Amino acid sequence: MRSADRTLMHAGLLGPLIAGAVCGALMVGGFLVMVIGAVTGRTSVPELTVSRAAFGVLMALLWGGVITTGLTALIRQFRRNRKLSRWVASAAVSPSPDLVTAMDQVRGRHPVVEIAGEAPYAFTHGIWRPAVVISSGLVERAARDELVALLHHEDYHVRHRDPLKVLVLRTWGAAFFVVPLVGVVLQRFLDRQELRADRAAVRRCGVAAVAGAMLKATGEPAGRPGTAMAAMGGPALLEARVAQLETGRSPRVITMIGRGAVLRSLPGAAVIAVYGVFAYRLCGAAGVCCMS
C-alpha cells in the first residue's frame, strides 16, 4: 500500500474515533466551565431547572464514561501491541526454506517473520506497518501449497489494514459499554474480515489448500487476548469458515446476537434515549448546542 493510501486509511479509521472523543470532551468541559462560572458568580446562566440539571448530569456521566473507557481500551491495546512487537522481534528466527519458497510465490510486499515455537499459528500484527508472523510449528506441519494459501490469507489482512480495524472497533465496543450490543455488532464485522480473507486465499490457491492451512493453524500465541491482530486459525469461526469452504457462500450468521446481550443493552439504550430527549428539548428548540 502506498504511503498516501496508508495515510488516508489511518485517517478514515482513526478520524471518527478522535472526533468523537474531542466532541465529548468539549461538551463535558463546556458544561463544567458553565457550572464553575455559575458557582463563582462570574457567568450568567439560565435558571436551573430539573430538566437542565438532569441533562447536565446525564451528559457528564455518559460522555465521561465513554471517553474514559474508550481511552483506557485504546491505551491498553497500544501497550499490548508494543509488547507483542517486542516479543516477535526477540523470538524471530531465520525463515525456513519452505517458507522462503512460499514467500517468493506470493510476492507480498509486507514483512513475513518466522518465530520459534511448537504451537501452529499465524497472524498479522502491527497497527502502522503490518507484518505477518508464522510459527515454526506451523511451517513444519503445513505443506507447500498450504503455506502459500496461508500467506495469501494474511496478505488480505495486511492490504486491508485489519490490525488497525481491530484496534478501532474494539475501542468503540469498549467505549459504548453501556450498550453491549454495539460490541457484538462490531465483532460481526471483524468476523466478516476473516471470511473475506479466506475467500481471497481460495481464489488464489483453491479450497483444498485453504482448508488444510485452516485445520493446521489451530494454535494461538501467548498474550493474544486484547491485542490488535488478525489471526489465520484458532477455534473462533471455525464452523462458519468450514461452511463457507463447503458451499462457496458466506454464512449469513456468524457472531450470534444473544438475548442476554440485547437485554443488557436495554438500560444503556434507555439512558441514551433520555439524553437525546433532553438534548432535543433544551438545545434543538433553541437551535444552539448549549443549555440556554
Describe the structure.
The protein contains 10 helices and 5 strands. A 5-stranded mixed β-sheet has the order 1-2-4-3-5. Helix 7 crosses helix 9 and helix 8 runs antiparallel to helix 9. The C terminus is likely disordered.
Q: How many distinct domains?
A: 1
Q: How far apart, in Å, are the first and last alpha carbons?
A: 49 Å
- Discrete helix count: 10
- SSE succession: HHEHEEEHHHHHEHH
Work out the helicity level: 55-70%
Summarize the structure.
With 292 residues, the protein is α+β, with helices and mostly antiparallel strands. It is built from 10 helices and 5 strands; from the N terminus they run ααβαβββαααααβαα.
Quick tags:
alpha+beta, 10 helices, 5-stranded mixed sheet, 292 residues, 6% strand, single chain, disordered C terminus
How are the secondary structure elements laid out?
Blueprint: H1 3-40, H2 50-91, E1 92-93, H3 97-106, E2 112-115, E3 122-125, E4 131-135, H4 136-141, H5 144-159, H6 162-175, H7 180-205, H8 207-216, E5 229-231, H9 238-247, H10 259-284
Parallel strand pairs: 2-4
Antiparallel strand pairs: 1-2, 3-4, 3-5
Helix pairs in contact: 1-2, 1-6, 2-6, 2-10, 3-5, 5-7, 5-8, 6-7, 7-8, 7-9, 8-9
